[in-house]
Amino acid sequence: MFDRDTAPPGMGIFLAKLLSHSLLSTEDQAAIAALPHQTRHLEPNDYILREGDRSDICPVLRSGFAYRQKITASGGREIVSIKIPGDPLDFQSMYLRTVDHNLQALTAVELTVIMISDFERLVQARPAIARAVMVDILIEASIGREWLLNNGRRNALARLAHLFCELHFRLHDTGSGGLDIRKMPLTQEQLADVLGLTPVHVNRTLKELERSGAIARDGRGIRIADLKSLIATAEFSDVYLHRDQS
Amino acid sequence: MGRYFFHTRDGHHEIDEVGVDLPDDAAAGLEAVRYGGSLLADDPHILRHDQLLRVECVDDTGRLLCTLLVTSVDANGNLATLAPGSE
């Protein structure tokens, strides 16, 4: 009988991510865990994929954080997605030919790299895995829609609080520990690039959240101090994360 | 490249002790405008407090480079109180 705890390093967290939104039989889980793969280490800001690439790999984030970003012709950058441990980083290239954004390491990362051709064979043979891939892609699209609303219509305080809430629940649901016990991985400049604010505005807003007691800052970083208060400030609803698929 | 700080007054004084790295004074002046614009877009009521938003751009020696002032005046040029309450 397959046991996820004995899955190869790097595959356990990937399975945890898929199981956070999809039911997979032990046979399906064992088939994923048995996929040939390699481990790659990257430093912060190293590129994982570049816009225009034709990718034949599906990297999965084993540890650390990564982000998708797009740049205007004049150099304005926006971080359009943050990926956490367990996240598959490029299911899209199973279906689309060209990578349409840049994917970079936010922190030092470890990647589990699977060949797309191997994963495709699995998807064709096992409908539940095909469904889990689709659900993962759909939830990422749902998160993207929420970010459009967040950056377009929420004020800076609610916008920043909302991002904290989202990352907290996503980390919590994949067993990585929420932002109440681990620090926010993004710097002030990176938060500015996510939220479409200037870095100084982000700092001002962080101070406001700190004064309200929702977050706490020490020399080592920012953590959530009062989740209820943060949720109220963000007017956060977790419906778009589709946390309960059962 | 230098470190620049952006202090604001809009009813209370908010000191920026973190700052941001920018290429030169000209870029810092533009950043002050961008920051002021961002604050105004975020909360139009910000002008209600002192009828004034002030963004002071300071370099890492403490030298004041420029101050962005945003206010609202009526037809006679007097400071206008913006209607409270409505979004």
As a whole number of angstroms, the C-alpha radius of gyration of chain A is 18 Å
The chain-level mean pLDDT of chain B equals 87
Strand content of chain B: 25-35%
* Biggest β-sheet description of chain B: 5 strands, antiparallel
N-to-C terminal Cα separation of chain A, in Å? 23 Å
Feature tags:
heterodimer; A: 246 residues; alpha+beta; three-stranded antiparallel β-sheet; 8 helices; B: 87 residues; five-stranded antiparallel β-sheet; 1 helix; 5 strands; 21% helix; 33% strand
Written description of the protein model:
The complex is a heterodimer of chains A (246) and B (87). With 246 residues, chain A is of the alpha+beta class. Chain A contains 8 helices and 9 strands. In chain A, the strands form 3 sheets. Chain A has a 4-stranded antiparallel sheet. In chain A, strands 1-7-3 form a 3-stranded antiparallel sheet. In chain A, strands 8-9 form a two-stranded antiparallel ribbon. In chain A, helix 5 packs across helix 7. The longest helix of chain A is centred in the middle third of the chain and has 27 residues. Chain A is globular and about 55 Å long. Chain B has 87 residues and is α+β, with helices and mostly antiparallel strands. Chain B has one domain. Chain B is built from 1 helix and 5 strands. In chain B, strands 1, 2, 3, 4 and 5 form a 5-stranded antiparallel sheet that branches. In chain B, a hairpin with a 4-residue loop joins strand 4 and strand 5. Chain B is elongated and about 40 Å long. At the A-B interface, helix 7 of A face helix 1 of B.
Produce the secondary structure layout.
The complex is a heterodimer of chains A (246) and B (87).
Chain A: H1 11-19, H2 26-33, E1 37-42, E2 47-49, E3 57-63, E4 66-71, E5 77-83, E6 102-105, E7 109-115, H3 116-125, H4 127-153, H5 156-173, H6 188-195, H7 199-212, E8 215-218, E9 221-224, H8 227-234
Antiparallel strand pairs in A: 1-7, 2-6, 3-7, 4-5, 4-6, 8-9
Chain B: E1 2-9, E2 13-14, E3 20-22, H1 25-42, E4 52-59, E5 64-71
Antiparallel strand pairs in B: 1-2, 1-3, 1-4, 4-5
